[in-house]
């Protein structure tokens, strides 16, 4: 019998495994993906958001706990569990040092359109490098990892975990453990489940990360009496290049250029304020916004001076010398798009220096949907556009946990040997909305707690 069985292979799972192993417990990690694809969405991440009291070698200034909490309240519109959110933020402060002690390295703070140099620490080499560092540490400590090992069954005795059925090499094996940590992601790759909340619109969604996050363990836990939390339609959904593959396009398909132009739907009409807030705090609303448009597609339209002001997609922008010609390339009505751009241009007040890192107050006046910041006329040829669709990173429906990362049963009692960390319990903190880097914070903080607590069972 193992002391701790961890399901999953990403940031949350590895933090749990390392914490439990450092406490002297035997730990087995079962990862459903092949070794090359190990780590779920951690492979595609770049940074994590942690509170800190002062500037460091890799962060340009302090990020107090209260500011972090205010940012979380703003993006979730208060749809969070305050006690867990505040605990997570407090525990994020020592996490920067702890995770570096596990071999992870950060790079100097970044500028550009991300505006995250003060709040977020960026992994040197990106998410895969960070993940590889955690695996090296885990394996050097004696954690055993099995790949292409999917949990297909759970044996629970009421609130207590007894064993899991794990399928590997075509065979089902029963694995008993004193404690179980579920850190195996959301259900974003399960289109049947997505359709339960979104309907047929989900067919036009693209999955930014792994095709292996199908929510199998989540469903089993809920069916066996663990309390469900979250809305099936709430998720981390951003606007990504519509030409991206259905799965695993990752960060290189994301577009950060909404603030530099306008966004139109299939009717060539704007449908939301492109200048509502600083990009890292509001970028994750655009996946949901596009999901509500006809055909679940939209286009970001801008002009020549803005082409090199943001990180481009893997795919080149579509260009044309005039707006009507651009519309033809996009499959939009030329007259309507030209009218939309002309109306927008005529409404731009502007007058202040353009500053994408701050709310600059350059706005439109007189439109049904105003652009409240960063409004610039789209008037200098050539003109450009990117097609975008909803890109789902991870879902928020999952299992309820307490401050010790213990799963809560449907009757409200905590289990003493069932724990959860990462996307599978993210809905406890993220009822809706998203702020850049917070998914990694949830995974690392609750992963460390889950592993520590599981070691004491």
TrEMBL record:
InterPro entries linked: CobZ, FAD-dep_OxRdtase_2_FAD-bd, FAD-oxidoreductase_2, FAD/NAD-bd_sf, Succ_DH/fumarate_Rdtase_cat_sf
Keyword Oxidoreductase on entry: yes
PANTHER family: FAD-DEPENDENT OXIDOREDUCTASE 2 FAD BINDING DOMAIN-CONTAINING PROTEIN, FUMARATE REDUCTASE
Reported cofactor(s): FAD
Swiss-Prot/TrEMBL keywords: FAD, Flavoprotein, Oxidoreductase
Species of the source: Albimonas pacifica
FAD-dependent oxidoreductase 2 FAD-binding domain mapped to chain residues: 3-431
A Pfam family this chain is assigned to: FAD_binding_2
GO MF annotation, one: oxidoreductase activity
Name of protein: Tricarballylate dehydrogenase
């Amino acid at each position: 019998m193992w002391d701790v069985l961890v399901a999953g292979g990403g940031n949350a799972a590895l933090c749990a495994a390392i914490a439990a192993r450092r406490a002297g417990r035997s730990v087995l990690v079962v990862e459903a993906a092949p070794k090359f694809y190990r780590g779920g969405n951690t492979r595609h991440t770049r940074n994590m958001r942690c509170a800190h009291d002062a500037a460091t070698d890799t962060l340009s200034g302090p990020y107090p706990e209260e500011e972090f909490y205010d940012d979380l309240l703003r993006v979730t519109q208060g749809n969070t569990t305050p006690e867990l959110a505040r605990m997570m933020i407090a525990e994020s402060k020592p996490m920067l040092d702890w995770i570096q002690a596990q071999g992870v390295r950060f790079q100097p703070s970044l500028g550009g359109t991300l505006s995250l140099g003060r709040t977020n620490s960026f992994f040197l080499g990106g998410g895969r490098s960070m993940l590889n560092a955690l695996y090296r540490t885990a394996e050097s400590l004696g954690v055993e990892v099995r790949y292409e090992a999917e949990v297909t069954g759970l044996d629970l005795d009421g609130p207590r975990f007894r064993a899991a059925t794990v399928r590997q090499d075509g065979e089902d094996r029963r694995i008993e453990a004193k404690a179980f940590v579920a850190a195996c992601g959301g259900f974003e790759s399960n289109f049947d489940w997505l359709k339960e909340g979104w309907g047929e619109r989900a067919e036009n969604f693209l999955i930014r990360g792994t095709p292996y996050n199908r929510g199998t363990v989540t469903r089993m836990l809920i069916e066996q009496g663990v309390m469900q939390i979250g809305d099936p339609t709430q998720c981390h959904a951003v606007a990504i290049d519509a030409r991206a593959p259905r799965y695993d396009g990752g960060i290189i398909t994301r577009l950060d250029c909404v603030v530099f132009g306008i966004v139109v739907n299939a009717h060539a009409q704007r449908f939301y304020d492109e200048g509502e807030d600083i990009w890292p705090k509001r970028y994750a609303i655009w996946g949901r916004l596009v999901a509500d448009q006809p055909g679940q597609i939209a286009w970001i339209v801008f002009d020549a001076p803005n082409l090199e002001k943001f990180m481009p997609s893997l795919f080149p922008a579509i260009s044309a010398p005039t707006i009507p010609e651009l519309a033809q390339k996009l499959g939009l009505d030329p007259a309507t798009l030209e009218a939309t751009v002309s109306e927008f241009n005529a409404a731009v007040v502007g007058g202040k220096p353009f500053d994408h890192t701050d709310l600059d107050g350059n706005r439109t006046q007189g439109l049904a949907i105003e652009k409240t910041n960063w409004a610039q006329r789209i008037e200098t040829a050539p003109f450009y556009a990117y097609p975008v669709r909803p890109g789902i990173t991870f879902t928020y429906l999952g299992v309820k946990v307490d401050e010790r990362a213990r799963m809560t049963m449907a009757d409200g009692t905590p289990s003493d040997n069932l724990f959860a960390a990462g996307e599978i319990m993210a809905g406890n903190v993220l009822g809706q909305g998203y702020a850049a880097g917070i998914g990694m914070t949830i995974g690392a903080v609750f992963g460390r707690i889950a592993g520590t607590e599981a070691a004491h069972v």
